[in-house]
Design goal:
Chains A, B: Residues 267-289 are annotated as: Disordered. Chains A, B: It comes from Actinomadura algeriensis. Two copies of one chain form a homodimer. Chain A is an alpha+beta fold and 289 residues long. Helix content of chain A is 25%, strand content 28%. In chain A, the strands form three sheets. In chain A, strands 4, 5, 6, 7, 8, 9 and 10 form a seven-stranded antiparallel beta sheet that branches. Chain A has a two-stranded antiparallel sheet with strand order 1-2. In chain A, β9 (230-239) and β10 form a beta hairpin. In chain A, α2 crosses α3 (51-63). The radius of gyration of chain A is 24 Å and the shape is elongated. At the A-B interface, α3, α4, β6, β7 and α7 of A face α3, α4, β6, β7 and α7 of B. β8 (200-210) of chain A pairs antiparallel with β11 (257-264) of chain B, so a sheet runs across the interface. Chain A binds a DNA duplex (21 and 21 nucleotides) through residues 1, 3, 7-9, 39-41, 49-53, 55-56, 58, 69-75.
DNA sequence: TGGGATTTGTTCGTATGTATG
DNA sequence: ACATACATACGAACAAATCCC
């Protein structure tokens, strides 16, 4: 039999949520940048329930990503910053402004003008027998790979974690700088074209969302709420001969990132200012079944 | 000052997680399809903590999406089904097998052969003054829109919720079937081309991940855990004149959906079997800075 | 700088309700 | 009807972090 009345904590939680959305919480404290909820003791009296029941409600609100509690300070309405918009299709392959050269984030991830990307030192590792990597790069499982890992910041704030993989052969066949923990200023793609003669003619992206691991939580300052998930994009790039060319895995904090893709003919301002909105007039035609 | 020792519930939770991952839980019950954890009372004795502390640990594991509890039954390890892979770039615009005609899911969302999509009746509404819709379609805020909403099933299982929007003008200008709560078998894009003369030449997608609302939770059978989030894809399609053409918002359950995009030249088996893996050999070149 | 007040975090105990088998 | 198992709810004590005078 289904429950007829909701539990008390649920009533408390939903009332708090309404009050948060209406903005009429913390009446004496409406000035602060970060809106604060009344302390648990006050809520206890206000709703006529025990502190534990109040905490059940707050716990649910935390999981929903609506509030966050800090020991000794109080419980606060979560402030979600404006999202960063990243175009993953436009800059690559010379399909859009920015061309296809330079650092990976100029190739793979187009960001609106005026933003600054800073890059951590490269961490280089040699790995063997990763089933996942082998699968994407279509190699034997015993193949050894070079992984190059970096942390990316946008305007000084944590933005993405990124790792690229390629077979160890690349380094011995002429692209030795892949093994050095230094940036490749002209971009690894350009470098590999120059040294090994490979041209990137297409790519395939796979996107998932998942719970972050500890390292990702730390870098992006994420908690345990359902809002604190990450995107994982897996880009497989192909050479002219149709062979898997490179594998780049990027982690993005989903609460403040929007991913964009363009295909076909798209107005310029949509390409260059994703999420910004170019004002223009309308005209008809529709879709959907 | 940072805490030196973790709380007891955290120890319990992490130990349970280890035991879950190693598979050595529920020793007398290893046969069942769904692995069951020992009851709370047993854990209480095993770890020497109170039942409330055990429940703190289980609660955290639930939020992480690792377990789920059912009243009267027990606590079970969550079984994540194999993901469905959907290609959002290939089928549209005739860029890939499947062409560009027919129902939306043949145009917009390419799925591997052998899967069957079934569609709910269309729910048609007329809406006014949606700031969001106006923004994407670049219209005035007072413009009225037709919305056409459908539930999609893949092989009989809930797969996606989808809503398309276009100005009410479309219906009065000749595309009257948009207002009828019936499928448009040849596809709305083809229908609008025929009636209003618009051709779709490109599109822009924006992808986000967020906590589901009640309706989405219900349709996809999602809970409150951090694994139970949804993708929301917003597709804006453009006509030859570069005007916003249609707006299609699709909701996907992120725990069992992978989104795919292709660009440029990509091997055929990657196009037609995303997530399936065509076995082939390797060859070098790399990327990343 | 100190010390007390405030506020949330952790942990326990207990009782009762509800769903399952 | 009974036993099992999770859910809800209350009360209480102390710890830990912060705030404020």
């Amino acid at each position: 039999m289904a429950r007829t009345t909701p539990p008390r904590w649920r009533d408390v939680a939903e009332d708090l949520l309404r009050r948060i959305e209406r903005g009429d919480l913390a009446p004496g404290d409406g000035s602060a940048a970060r809106r604060r909820l009344p302390p648990e003791k006050d809520l206890e009296l206000h709703y006529g329930v025990s502190r534990n029941t109040v905490r059940e409600a707050l716990s649910w609100l935390q999981n929903q990503g609506a509030v966050t509690s800090e020991q000794g300070k109080g419980t606060f309405v979560v402030h979600r910053p404006q999202a960063d918009h990243v175009t993953l299709s436009a800059a690559a392959l010379g399909l859009a402004p920015g061309g296809g050269d330079g650092e990976w984030y100029n190739r793979d991830a187009f960001i609106p003008a005026g933003r600054t990307v800073t890059v951590s030192p490269v961490k280089v590792e040699v790995q063997e027998g990763s089933q996942l990597i082998s699968w994407y790069l279509q190699t034997d499982e015993e193949t050894e790979f070079i992984s190059r890992h970096q942390l990316l910041h946008l305007d000084g704030r944590p933005w993405a974690m990124q790792t690229s993989y390629y077979p160890l052969d690349f380094a011995t066949a002429g692209a030795s700088r892949l093994l050095k923990p230094r940036n490749i200023p002209e971009g690894a793609v350009a470098y590999l074209k120059e040294t090994l003669g490979y041209t990137e003619v297409g790519f395939h992206d796979e996107i998932r969302a998942r719970v972050p691991n500890e390292s990702e939580k730390h870098f992006f300052s994420l908690g345990d709420s359902a809002a604190d998930v990450v995107f994982e994009t897996v880009r497989t790039a192909y050479s002219e001969s149709g062979r898997a060319f490179r594998l780049t895995i990027t982690i993005w904090p989903a609460d403040r990132t929007r991913l964009h893709y363009n295909a076909g003919d798209v107005p310029d301002d949509v390409l260059t200012r994703p999420g910004q909105g170019g004002a223009r007039d309308i005209s008809p035609s529709g879709d959907d079944a």
